[in-house]
């Protein structure tokens, strides 16, 4: 659990999750740490010792990101109690994203179903990055990454309002870069202000940048927005929440299994973000790995005779 997630609200949520699972007869081991890397290392050790029948993450997409990197391709089921600010992964998976107690109840029911049968799970894709890291949501490499960088420095707002304010503040620095985007074996060189690769559909608490992205289709959706003025971007921005920006002449999409992003101009390499976490500068290569994660889902409803 990340006690700081959701403005500190996740601590109480984590306590309720531990109590609910313990009261239901499960042996619960609470993992806490002073930093993200320490938390991930503790989780890796627990999984390596075969100590976990399942892992439950209490926090936001950043906390989930740590678990994804510890659990990818291990087969250990991952339960999600969304208690952060954006919770986009839970949202895109159709899991409770704004009601932590509903998420806890779902897990209690799912683990009860697993007493006599395997825990009910859904296999989803994850994305392996050339840096050695994994992510499950979206990777941003343009204006959207700059917005994420700005939003992470803002502490007085949370959720969607924080990202909206960050967008408005970053508009003053809006400028296009010369990108080189390779989708599988097809390379495009183009000027763009926005480059996003989606395994899931939304970012920033419900901004549907890649509305047709699916977490189990073995493909990544690549969004590119060609140069826009500040006024044009402001007009486009509200459409992102409905996913109708896909019809704009400045926006294009393509799909692939392996994506490489780099820049051809002389400016400093843009920073990249994925699952709300800083990944470092371009270039990066992304490869979707089908079925890399098992997500705990609601227990099946028993059939009536």
From TrEMBL:
MF annotations from Gene Ontology: kinase activity
Pfam families xref list: DAGK_cat, YegS_C
All residue ranges annotated as the DAGKc domain in the record: 1-133
InterPro entries hit by this protein: ATP-NAD_kinase_N, Diacylglycerol/lipid_kinase, Diacylglycerol_kinase_cat_dom, Lipid_Phosphate_FormReg, NAD/diacylglycerol_kinase_sf, YegS/DAGK_C
SMART domains according to UniProt: DAGKc
Keyword Lipid biosynthesis: yes
Keyword line: ATP-binding, Kinase, Lipid biosynthesis, Lipid metabolism, Magnesium, Metal-binding, Nucleotide-binding, Phospholipid biosynthesis, Phospholipid metabolism, Transferase
PROSITE patterns recorded: DAGK
The organism's place on the tree of life at top rank: Bacteria
The protein's required cofactors: Mg(2+)
Family: Belongs to the diacylglycerol/lipid kinase family.
Cross-referenced PANTHER family: LIPID KINASE YEGS (PTHR12358:SF106), SPHINGOSINE KINASE (PTHR12358)
Protein name as it appears in the record: Diacylglycerol kinase
């Amino acid at each position: 659990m990340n006690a700081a997630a959701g403005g500190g609200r996740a601590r109480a949520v984590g306590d309720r999750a531990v109590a609910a699972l313990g009261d239901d007869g499960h042996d619960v081991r609470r993992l806490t740490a002073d930093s993200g890397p320490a938390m991930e290392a503790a989780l890796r050790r627990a999984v390596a010792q075969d100590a976990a029948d399942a892992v439950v993450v209490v926090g936001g997409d950043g906390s989930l990101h740590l678990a994804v990197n510890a659990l990818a391709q291990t087969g250990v089921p991952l339960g999600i109690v969304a208690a952060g600010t954006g919770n986009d992964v839970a949202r895109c998976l159709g899991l409770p994203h704004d009601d932590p107690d509903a998420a806890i109840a779902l897990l209690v029911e799912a683990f009860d179903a697993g007493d006599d049968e395997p825990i009910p799970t859904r296999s989803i894709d994850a994305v392996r990055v050339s840096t050695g890291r994994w992510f499950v949501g979206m990777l941003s490499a343009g204006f959207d990454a700059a917005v994420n960088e700005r939003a992470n420095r803002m502490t007085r707002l949370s959720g969607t309002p924080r990202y909206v304010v960050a967008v408005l503040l970053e508009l003053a620095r809006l400028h296009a870069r010369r990108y080189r985007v390779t989708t599988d074996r097809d390379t495009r060189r183009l000027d763009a202000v926005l480059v996003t690769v989606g395994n899931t559909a939304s970012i920033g608490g419900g901004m549907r940048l890649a509305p047709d992205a699916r977490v189990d289709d073995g493909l990544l959706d690549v969004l590119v927005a060609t140069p826009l003025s500040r006024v044009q971007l402001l007009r486009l921005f509200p459409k992102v929440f409905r996913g109708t920006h896909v019809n704009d002449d400045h926006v294009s999409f393509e799909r692939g299994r392996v994506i490489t992003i780099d820049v051809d101009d002389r400016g400093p390499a843009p920073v990249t973000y994925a699952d709300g976490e800083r990944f470092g500068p371009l270039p990066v290569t992304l490869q979707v790995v089908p079925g890399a994660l098992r997500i705990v889902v609601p227990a099946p409803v028993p059939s009536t005779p």
